[in-house]
């Protein structure tokens, strides 16, 4: 492993418990961990980086995504459909996924994320057509290649249209198939140790695509294996109506009845909770992945994030999509969280620093980690550096952190596990043009397979 000294950072926004921010500060990194943070750090280092113009932030943590959807980015935007009909248009296309497409899209999506300052990403892959036996394996290998921390979740659907669900038969599996593969990927890849680069979760897709039995058995397996649980919930009013018609309760109340409100669960969206839902989420320690861009694009609404935070609910950020965003851009999502909360609840609803905390400490809490999310001695060395001397920050001297979040700047350097993966705004170990070409080729194959030009 390497040792790096980030010398004289213009500002370090630590996101520690006190929210400390310090100027002219060094960050010493050794063997993948932050060794020391402070002025005038001494010692021998393999590399020293002049950071006098840089603001340092903890690496951003993406808590909800569907990386395979980068193959159908912005499709079919012209129709402007809400979630249910949008999914019904895309399920038959996604049914053509193969292992190479999953590998290529995961690599491309994670590369774009890391260029935006994301150092840890979850993913929710829930489409498993025939030939999908090693989809998760392909994702893990792609994440290792890009160099990011990865929390892939083994998603699942067992409730097709013929049984009253939303997805077609071609993308659902039996409970036995799902649980068998879930056990396999947990045994093969889950690492519970501090500093882990890969952790597995189990993620039945949503109340309108899975059976209560699958939810219960997935939870039982996850808790036996010591992994976390994830699902979509309360995303749209259509979902709320479906849940009440089928089960007589709100989507969040349905989760509660299935043992899914608990500290080892994080849920995506939660746009339409009731008062009782908020109380239940807070009291159970369940976390929420807030996906503002996706929810706005599909017209789903704006989650009451300020209310969640005031109730003591841990909230992280999720890019989501990328067929419902359609950018893999965590810096942009931080800004979007600011804007969405202020539109919903007023100008004071989301200060910039609260939004950055969602993308760092909030994300770490949602993923069940205390080793990432802040710049402190003893934490994993995931650090993002923004150059404040650029045109995008010009005029922002009074509040550099706000200038970085609210402007149009992107990181100049990204460090994951003590290794530099982005430098001077470019990937260190990959060629953008190659990733782009492979992604476009895979996308064309998928669309052609679906009978589209």
Summarize the structure in words:
The chain is an alpha/beta fold. It has 2 domains: 3-58 and 379-427, Urease, subunit C, domain 1; 60-366, Metal-dependent hydrolases (TIM Barrel). It is built from 14 helices and 19 strands. It has helices at residues 83-94, 99-115, 135-146, 175-189, 212-225, 237-247, 251-257, 275-284, 292-297, 305-310, 330-345, 352-366, 400-406, 432-449; strands spanning 3-9, 11-13, 21-22, 25-30, 33-38, 47-50, 54-58, 60-62, 118-125, 149-156, 201-204, 228-233, 265-269, 287-290, 315-317, 383-387, 413-416, 419-423, 426-427. The strands form 3 sheets. The protein has an 8-stranded parallel sheet. It has a 7-stranded mixed sheet with strand order 3-2-7-16-17-18-19, covered by helices on one side. β18 and β19 form a beta hairpin.
Instruction: Please bin the fraction of helical residues.
Output: 25-40%
Radius of gyration: 21 Å
Q: From the coordinates shown, what is the CATH architecture of the largest domain?
A: Alpha-Beta Barrel
Mean pLDDT: 97
| Broad CATH class of the largest domain | Alpha Beta
Count of separate structural domains? 2
Shape from CA axes? globular
Q: Give me the secondary-structure category.
A: alpha/beta
Outline the biggest β-sheet. 8 strands, parallel
Number of DSSP helical runs: 14
DSSP E strands, number: 19
Strand numbers in spatial order across the main sheet: 8-9-10-11-12-13-14-15
By CATH, the superfamily of the largest domain comes out as Metal-dependent hydrolases
Beta-strand proportion: 15-25%
Between the first and last Cα atoms, what is the distance in angstroms? 47 Å
Remind me, CATH topology of the largest domain?
A: TIM Barrel
Instruction: Report low-confidence residues grouped into runs of 5 or more.
Output: none
